[in-house]
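Database export, one record per block. Field names are fixed; values are copied verbatim from the stored entry.
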Amino acid sequence: MKMVAGITEKQDLTLAQLKTELQLLTDSEEEKRVLVRGMVSTVRQMGEVAFIILRKADGMVQCVCEKGMVWRVSPETQPGHMPEKKDAVFDPRRLREESAVEICGVLRAEQRAPQGLEIGMETIRILSEPAEAMPVCISKGRLAASLETQLNLRGIMLRHVKERAKFRIQEGLVRGFRDFLHGQGFTEIHTPKIVARGAEGGANIFRLDYFGKKAELAQSPQLYKQTMVGVYDRVFEVGPVFRAEKHSTARHLNEYTGLDFEMGYIDSFEEIMEMEAAMLRYTMELLEKDYGPELTLLQVEVPGVKEIPQVSFHEAKRLVSAKYGRSMRNPGDLEPEEEQLIGRYFKEEKGSDFVFVTHYPSKKRPFYAMDDPEDPRVTLSFDLLFRGLEITTGGQRIHDYRMLLDKMERRGMDPTDMESYLMIFRHGMPPHGGLGIGLERLTMQLLGEDNVRETAMFPRDLNRLEP
């Protein structure tokens, strides 16, 4: 009987490990044999020398079949372990791009190579070969294909070096969000995505038949986040959000990833803005520290988040109207052009890529939003604009049971429809609030992309259900 005890150590090295091994080489050491596995990105034949660029998870590695050497194919060996040399001749011209291979050879410094190192090949083992040629070239520095083609071929287009870099940076955004909130005493939760009713209301709901019962895909984890504040005080979630909006704009998706948190025992809704500002500062510093190669490749300018200005909704409208001569067409909400002008105003006046817009009109916010005691026409809520685009909505929630009932009734809502939600308030809830961030929008603005589909790994929109 075979027993499983843990991870079997392999000699397959990452790019980072190869760099470390190279640094450890001393003058007395003639060579260091290494083994790497990866996908063949390109094969360049130059006379009797062949350059094979291997794509690994953390970057590209140059492997060289040098003039005068005997190219050898390794025998069948235990995968991931150093093979012995055999005399079967290998012709690199038969090696196809996107083949998975295992290469063993001598590690050495080479400043002209992609990572300042290369491997002089001794053996190669072909693990798999593609059944057909690639429909488009992904080994060039730039993808020569329309966005529609890129999305249709998403599964292979994501192998491109710049596409990989985009989603590594997106990983960093999620990592920063999680790490920072864990450090602030937040508990990560996972709420249901099949629900009895939406948190936001309206018509943008995907409806389901749930074993004969009416159900919906969650528009937001909002009601569950609030519930869990009564359990853990501070909670957060990273998960999908669904909106059945029949649009096809560059800023909307029908499924996106929400970064949500909720925190209890607050004295003011401004504490939520302070928490987000600190989280963004931590996350941007993390990107600069751990994702430098990706930022450099994509020429991304990481924004400073030392201080974020805040302005009330009506004051923001007044400022951009006065400076840019734009009349206020919609008194109850911000139009996309207004968001852009507000972002431009605070970049020009305060040097900030971010701005908090506060005190949105009550009629435009959900029923659970806390109205301002000094002016019930507006709420203790905010949006965060990043380079002229809303990426966050948040604010203080109503925590008093009778106040919540009163607002629901004023809006013509039937409290019996939300009995399980109202139950938590009947049995006491602390003052609390929170926010939701759209991950794909945040990534889009950070990278300077024009369409949010470019920063969704497998986007879902009005017309796209595959791949």
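Remark 1: The two ends are 42 Å apart (CA to CA).
Remark 2: The longest strand covers residues 33-46.
End of record.
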